[in-house]
Structure formats: C-alpha cells, structure tokens
Specification:
Blueprint: E1 2-5, E2 18-25, H1 32-51, E3 59-66, H2 71-85, E4 89-91, H3 96-102, H4 106-109, E5 113-115, E6 130-132, H5 137-150, E7 155-161, H6 164-179, E8 183-190, H7 198-207, E9 211-215, H8 220-230, E10 237-239, H9 246-252, E11 260-264, H10 279-293, H11 299-318, H12 323-330, E12 336-337, E13 342-343, E14 358-364, E15 367-370
Parallel strand pairs: 2-3, 2-4, 4-5, 5-6, 7-8, 7-9, 9-10
Antiparallel strand pairs: 1-3, 11-14, 12-13, 14-15
C-alpha cells in the first residue's frame, strides 16, 4: 500500500485548524486511468480551497491511499482512515468492486463516504452514510437504448467484463434491454485480464445482431474494438461510460472510429450551448486541470473534483466539519452544478443525478463529438 500524500497544509497547523479528509483511490494498477486523474483533481481542488482560506476557517488536509486497484488493499485503506487517521469523510474508492467491499463499514463508523464509482448497488438500497458522484450505470444503459431505439435496432448483443463494474452493468443490461422492447440475442463475458475476445465476437457475429453493447473498463474494450475490426465486423458497437477517457482512444487506435458511448458533458464541454448549466464549470475545470497537469481531462477526474467539492459544500451549508453534519447536509444539497452533472440529493436519492448526466458521443478522427440524434 502506498501512502501518497499526508499533510497538504503548511505542516505547522494545529489539529483544530484543519479538517482531515480521507481518500482511497486506484492510483496505480489496472484502474489507474480512473484513479490517477481523480487524485490529481482532488489535489487541485484542495489547493484552490486552501488558497482561498479553507472551509469554515480551517485548512483541508487530504490523506490519500492508493489501493492499487486491489479490493483487499481498499479494505485495509478504509480501516486505516477510519480507525487510525480518524477522518471526517472518505472520498472514493475509484471502482465499483472496491466500493461495494467497503461501504458497509461506514454506518458503524458514522463517517460519510462519497464514492467515485458507478454501480447502482452502491446507493440502492440507500445506505444513509454512503453517497456517490458517478452517474449510475442504469442511466448509461438508458441513454444507449434510447439511441438504439431511435436507429430502429431490435436485436442486441452484450459483451461484459467479469469484474464488479461489468457485473453491475450486465445486470442493468439484462433488465432494461427486454423491458425496453429489445431482444437480447447474445450474452458474452470476458475476464479483466483477457487479451483476445475473438471467440466471443465470433459467436456474436454468427447471430447477426443489430448492434453490440460492450461494458467494461480499459484495456478490455479496446481489445474488443480491435478484434471487431480484425474479424471484419460492421455491426454497430456501443461502449459504456467506463471508457470515457482519451486512454481508450489511444489503446483502440483507428478501431475506435465511429464508436458510440454515453459520456459526461465534460468531454464535449466546448460544444455545449451557453445555456447549459454546467458549461462554465466544465470549461474552468478543463482550463485549470490541463494547465496544472499538462494532460487532457477525463470524466473520472471530474468524479474526484465533485467528491471533494460536495463534501466541502456540505460543511459550508451545515456550518460544521463534524461527520454527522456532513452526512446530514450532503442529503440537502440541491442544484449543484458539478463536473458529472447537476446534483440534487435527497434522503431517498444518494447520487442526485439522472439520465441527463450523460450525453451520447461518437469518436471521430480520434476526438469526442456530440452524436447527432
């Protein structure tokens, strides 16, 4: 386990002068393309808040542990943040499997967690101490199926990865595809470390569906995109929001051309109308992130930014950095324009977003474009 960052303030502040916030992120390992921009964004937001005087007169100290994309290390990291570091709130984990493994620790600790992962199971049923900022997988499926319906597709095939993210997405796909009037004609699964999905795609090719939906995070979906081209398949291929980063386009190369996926508005911020409530926030985040890290933004970095900004907003609204007050006031946040969407939480809704958090994008000439309806 790698301790990435401990004291983010001047190093001389007294305990009463700081509010300790924990984070468990997949900064290294297979999910590093998710966790690294989350870490960068949290540090960027922390610096901006501290530079403007902190929150309620206190500087923010962020303790970040890298779970290395490993569920056991995520569990150990959360235990350390709760029992040793005694943080007021925990941000993350980055991925669904790790979040699902640790989320039941928070009610007993009476510390709120703001996950950066997408699985619907994280917030359904509602755990009073668990929130998330990544739009639910169900919203992404609904966005894909709306596009498929508009194109007149009837028969759909799915290919999903066998990890936590893939299993959660597969459940939503198997529920929503038939209930939305489509026929699910193929249900293939691959392992997160598989390097060739030709066998699964060959089976799908023989069935001849109208479109294929791939649900996974890098690198598997990029392999599937390349295998599809290698097999000479022209069947339309949808990807999930799990590949909404430039890394996917780099990995898939020319095989990414023409692929469609639901993504956060961040990827196409400059193409949004000025009336979009997120546009100014997204452009400002993009400007600051690219200047500081010399890298393109990704949806995942936005989750890191939102997790810290929402926790701080709850502190400001409640006038307290106490864990119970943070939890209570997270539930009351309304119309907060963040990177992942416009958040409105309630006691029954701990993601605070809906299908509108996504927009369908297409990859053209190695860039994201808003897909035409």
């Amino acid at each position: 386990m790698l301790l990435l960052c401990i004291l983010m303030t001047t190093g001389t502040a007294f305990a009463d002068d700081v509010v300790k916030i924990g984070a468990v992120l997949s900064v290294t390992g297979p999910a590093s393309f998710i966790g690294e921009p989350e870490k960068n964004s949290i540090e960027m937001v922390r610096d901006a808040i501290n530079a403007s005087g902190g929150v309620l007169g206190k500087k923010i100290e962020v303790i970040i542990y890298d779970d290395e994309s490993n569920v056991n290390k995520a569990v150990l990291s959360v235990d350390k943040l709760i029992k040793k570091d005694r943080v007021a709130v925990v941000l993350g984990p980055s991925i669904s499997g790790n979040t699902l493994a640790v989320m039941n620790k928070f009610p007993a600790a009476k510390i709120p967690m703001v996950s950066c992962a997408a699985a619907e199971k994280i917030i359904k049923p509602v755990n009073p101490w668990v929130f998330k900022v990544a739009p639910s997988d169900r919203f992404a499926v609904q966005k894909i199926l709306s596009d498929a319906k508009a194109k007149g597709y009837k028969k759909l095939a799915i290919i999903t990865v066998s990890d936590g993210f893939g299993q959660a997405g597969r459940e939503e796909l198997k529920d929503l595809i038939p209930s939305s009037g489509f026929e699910l004609v193929a249900d293939e699964v691959y392992g997160p470390k598989d390097t060739d999905m030709t066998a699964q795609l060959t089976k799908i090719k023989e069935i001849n569906p109208d479109a294929i939906i791939c649900w996974g995070t890098n690198p598997g979906p990029a392999v599937i995109a390349r295998n599809r081209v290698q097999l000479g398949m022209t069947t339309p291929l949808y990807m999930s929001h799990g590949v909404a980063s430039k890394k996917f386009i780099e990995l898939a190369g020319e095989a990414a051309e023409g692929l469609l996926l639901p993504a956060g508005h961040l990827l196409v911020a400059s193409q949004l109308p000025d009336s979009d409530p997120q546009k100014a926030v997204l452009l400002d985040y993009t400007k600051r992130y690219t200047k500081m890290f010399k890298k393109p933004v990704s949806t995942f970095g936005g989750h890191g930014s939102d997790s810290l900004n929402l926790a701080v907003k709850a502190m400001e609204n409640g006038g307290s950095t106490d864990s119970q007050a943070i939890r209570d006031n997270l539930e009351k946040i309304q119309n907060f324009a963040g990177i992942g969407g416009v958040f409105s939480f309630t006691p029954e809704d701990h993601v605070g977003l809906d299908e509108n958090a996504f927009i369908m994008v297409v990859i053209e000439n190695g860039e994201w474009k808003i897909a035409q309806k």
